[in-house]
Structure formats: C-alpha cells, structure tokens
Amino acid sequence: MGSSLPTMEDVANRAGVSRALVSLVMRDSPKVSDGSRAAVLAAASAIGYRPNLIARNLASHRTMTIGVFLDDLHNPYYAEIADGLLATAYGHGYHTLITTGRRHPNEQQRAIETLFGMQTDGLILLSPRFPLTIIESLAVNLPVVAVAEPLKSDHIDTVSNDERVGARLIIDHLVGLGHRRILHIDGGEGPAATMRLRAFRRVMKMHGLDPGPRISAEEFTEAGGERATDRLLKSAEPMPSAIFAANDLIAAGVLDRLDDTKIRVPRDLSLVGYDNTALATMRRMSLTTIDQQRVAIGSLAVETLIDRITTGRPAGQHHVLAPSLVVRKTTAAPRSK
Amino acid sequence: MGSSLPTMEDVANRAGVSRALVSLVMRDSPKVSDGSRAAVLAAASAIGYRPNLIARNLASHRTMTIGVFLDDLHNPYYAEIADGLLATAYGHGYHTLITTGRRHPNEQQRAIETLFGMQTDGLILLSPRFPLTIIESLAVNLPVVAVAEPLKSDHIDTVSNDERVGARLIIDHLVGLGHRRILHIDGGEGPAATMRLRAFRRVMKMHGLDPGPRISAEEFTEAGGERATDRLLKSAEPMPSAIFAANDLIAAGVLDRLDDTKIRVPRDLSLVGYDNTALATMRRMSLTTIDQQRVAIGSLAVETLIDRITTGRPAGQHHVLAPSLVVRKTTAAPRSK
DNA sequence: CTGAAAGCGCTTACAG
DNA sequence: CTGAAAGCGCTTACAG
Predict the structure, then answer these.
(1) Which of B7, B141, B226, B307 to mutate to test the interface with A (most CBs of A within 10 A)?
(2) Looking at per-residue confidence, does A179 or B128 come out higher?
(3) What is the CATH architecture of A163-292?
(4) B24 CA, C11 C1': Å apart
(5) How many other C-beta atoms lie within 10 A of the C-beta of residue B258?
(6) What CATH architecture does domain A64-160+294-320 belong to?
(7) What is the pTM of this model?
(8) What is d(CA A29, CA A10) in angstroms, rounded to the nearest whole number?
C-alpha cells in the first residue's frame, strides 16, 4: 500500500517543476518565489502528497522529533507533565512521539527501542521503571533527559521534583499540628518511590522522630493503597496518627479502605497525598497534598533536551524544582493530645 | 550525532561476515546457523549496534508499527483502551507510537501527520476531535481504524460502544426507580458527545418522556460538569429528578458542585455517570455508571487494523460492543413520589 | 530556479 | 552463507 503513495517526483511532474524545487518548498525554504511555492503546494494537495518523514530523516540525519517514554498512562501525574512537554515541543517545531511500557519491564525496554529505532533527535524518559544505567550507553549517542533522580552521569540530563522539600513541607505541617507517629506508605521499588521514601526518613530523623516500619503500597495505585491499609489494620503495630502516602492515588486507596472502618479522617487519622491531582481537589476527597510543578517539569525537560540537541553540550544538567503544600481537609490536630 | 552510530557494515566487519548475513540475523531469519547468529549478535552488542528502523522501513515498505492517536491524556478512559490496544499490538509483534493533540484541533492534525509521516503501517484514532471525512483521503492509502461512530465509508473501520444500549440501560434503570424528569448533561461538540446525546433523546422518546432542554458540559471534564451544574442551578427550569452525565468526570464535577448546596445525592437527585472509571468505584463517590468494554475495544481495534494491513480487505468493518450498567449509590427512587 | 550526482542505512532478489 | 547491484524517498551540495 505504501508504495502507491505519491512522492516528490509526482508533485514535481504535476507542477511542471524540478524535484529540487519541491524539496525546497516542503522544507519551507525562503529562497522560493511566492508563485512557485503556490504552484507546488497546489500540486501537492491535488494529488494528496505528504512528505515521507522517514526518508527525510534518513537523508538529513535529523527528525525534528522528540521521543517521550512514559511509565503509565493511568497515572494522571504524567498527563500533566506531558501537557507542558507537548506544548513546549510543539512551540519549538518538534514532533512528539510517545511510547509506554504499561509498567512491564520488557515492554518498557521495547518501547524505548522503538523510539531509538525511529531515530528521534532526543529522548525524554518519564519515571522509567529500570535503572538509568541501562540507558547510559544509549545516551552517549543520543541526548536523553530523564524526569528522575539526578545522576552523576554527564550523558543524561535530569529534571526532578525536590523530594527533600516535599517531605519537609509535609512533616513540618504534621508536626506543627502535633503529630509524632507519622507513617509513610511508599510506592514500591521504582526509583521515584525510593527517592521519596529516603526523603521521608531523612526529614523524620531531622525532627528526631522514628520513621517506623516500612509499609509499601508496592505501586502508585489506589489498589496498592488499599492493600497497604489492609496490612496496616491487621498488624500488631500501634496505628500512626498521620499517614504520608506516596501519591494521591495511594492516598485515595487509603481513604477508601478507611471509609469501610470506624476510623475517620482527619478526626482519628490525618492523611497527606502527593501530586495535587484532580481527585485531591474534589470536595469529597479534599486531600491535603503536595503540588509538584508538573507543567514546568515537562517544559524544562524539553528545553533542556533541545539545548543538548542543538549545542551538543557535553556536561550534564540537573534541574530540581521545589514543590508546594496544599492544605485541605484531611489533616488536623491528632485526637488524643 | 546520528551519523556516528554503528551500522550493519560495522557489525559485519567486526564479526568478519557479510552485511547480508547481519541483515538476516537482525530480521530473525531461520536460514542462519546458530553459530553465525551468535557471532553476529555478539559483535552487535559489543559495538552497541541497534537496527535503524527508519532505514529498514524505507527499504522494506513495512514498519511493523501502529500509530495511535488519542484525544486527551487526562481522560482515564483512554488509558484503559490503550491497555488492550498496546497489549494486543505487542502480542502481534507490532511497535506502537502514540501521539495526542491535547484537545487542540491544530495540534491534533499535526499529531496525525506525524504518525503518517513516520510511515506507520496503520492508524488507530481514539475519539478524534474532527470529522472523520478529513481523514478519509488518507485512509485510501493507509489502513485506519477509528474508535468512533460507524461510518458509511469502506475505507475506515470502526469499533465503538453501543450508545443506544448504554442510554437504554440508564433510562430503564431510572424509569424503573420512578424517575421521569431525566436530564442529560452532554459532553459538547465532539463526535462521541453528539452520539451519546442523540441516543439519550431517542430512548427518552421511546419511553414517551421529554428530553428537556440541552445542558452541555462542553467537554468531558470535571470543570465542565461543575459549570453545567452552575447553569442548571441558576436557570428557571424546574430541577430534574435525575441526571445522566456524559461521563464520570462530568458526573464528578456535578457531584462536587452539588456538595456545595443542600441538594443531596441520591436523596434529592439521582446521578449516573459513564465509563466506570476508578473514580466511580471509590466509596466516597460510589457512582452508578456505564461500563464500556474498554479493553476489548482496544484489542478489537488492533485486530481489525492488522487484518486490514495483512489482507488488504477492501470492505469496511464496523464493530459495536454492548456496555453494561453498574448500579452503585448515586441512584435511588425520587423523593416526592 | 534547474539538473545531475552522491548518499543516508537498510532490504530485496539473485547468482554463486 | 557471500557479494554485488538496485532501490526506498528524500537531502545536500554544487555547477549552471
């Protein structure tokens, strides 16, 4: 089927001009007279010609395309980052191609290979579920920006949320209300989750507080939050007076599970989420949460990538953006105090 | 940068074999001895060679890639369809490339051009925000499956939810509870919204009920649902006893806005959503809603596309999948009855 | 603006 | 398995 598509040759024939002229017009060259341009464009649209990008790319060694890998289409967090990212790429005249691995390591590898094989000019990785070191050999030949923890590598640029600030905002807020038994429900084994857990532990220690046992939701989902809450309720451990959930989805799972018990939020337990998703803003949830600069993270990732693509800058760049706290109705002073 | 990447030539030199052999190995040909295969693979990984897919595609006229256009990354509805879609494509050995237009018509056009330019073997369009007739000329040369209302066209296959069944399930349920003043809050001008509105009106008439004035959320978002509710509350119209919102996000917006009034759901007003998203399942929402066969819609779209790609089938295929009703706690008998 | 040439990194088809 | 050739649809660089 593809072979029957019109080519530049066809456009040139129909317009009665050279193939070189058609090529200039398609690349928006300023050296073409308005009359010729109009004639070529008319011929092109008459026969339904559209440039074959892969042929162009093969010849020019540029694709003007940014590949975006994203961990999970289900997490609204990525949608927001993607917003900033896509708008900025579009503004710079870049095409954007997205792939995802649906949280399966195999498919994630394949998704990135697809982007690589398509010869995108650069790659943006949103929270990949594998160590970045795997990607490093790739990054020697291809600009890569990861929305992930800063690396020592000069080959991969990073843009990330300041986890230390996030944890501090949450814990300061809870401690200010009088809480001391604060539990973190973490997001599992992924790099983002590990980073957040580490920040929590550090800040708790700074406050002279015991970070307590590890309770994990294993993934950034509602179901994970429910399961973790189940385990907590069944455990012999004393209940915490406040929970810092690794993201809003986990917090929603916690809330949902607690709604099935006699424990009331925030009367008996305070709860904080992370990401300030649409869910958190609803009156029925009114979740106290952390607002990451999601759109800015997306834009900055693109700016950083394009900078590396166009300048060939050899040194790594690592941007860290500070989040803010949004206090709603799931946090209050502990009951028995 | 791209020019410094290793090519087949480099692999052949290092392995001491011909370029043709390398090509056979990379395409997983069975005519290669195990020894040769191992040698080639070793050489490839030693120098970090990965096949240049765009060169392969240009030469072979196949990309083994399916392009997926999706309207809005924020709507969890698409994430679920994408799940079925990606898993099925992966199972058939196809790569998948996603683009989105963030609900802007210009960017949507560009997003589709990108996929087309990349010479994907076929396109799947998830609820495009423009008339499919624009795409028809494209579809003459390229297999296209749209998750959208069935067309008369033989060039575009469609897979869709049975809107008539959905509307009937909702209205039968509400009428069974005793409701007669049922209002639909529609999703705006897009094709999916129009289809759903039309189904609502038809089924209302079949019941001999008045579909009432048109109230639109203008988009499938929480904010749209809030605005529509605002307008409803301020209007002179008598309040309905039940609302059928065009999707769960709109329903959430309605609920959120009503939580700010003295109107209680379902005591004073019944509410039904559409899509059975994670939101609807939460105890605090417990939204009665319609469950589309999302994963099946995604899988079937891929199967239909691959069928057209491989057989060149000239006739259009139009699949319609019946949804089901999930009754939760936002619907009950009307109060004053 | 035209025209002819070389090349991008592969695949395809074929003779050996 | 090798080797040489042609071609995919473009871009690039150049002489005119």
Answers:
(1) B141
(2) A179
(3) 3-Layer(aba) Sandwich (3.40)
(4) 10
(5) 21
(6) 3-Layer(aba) Sandwich (3.40)
(7) 0.91
(8) 20
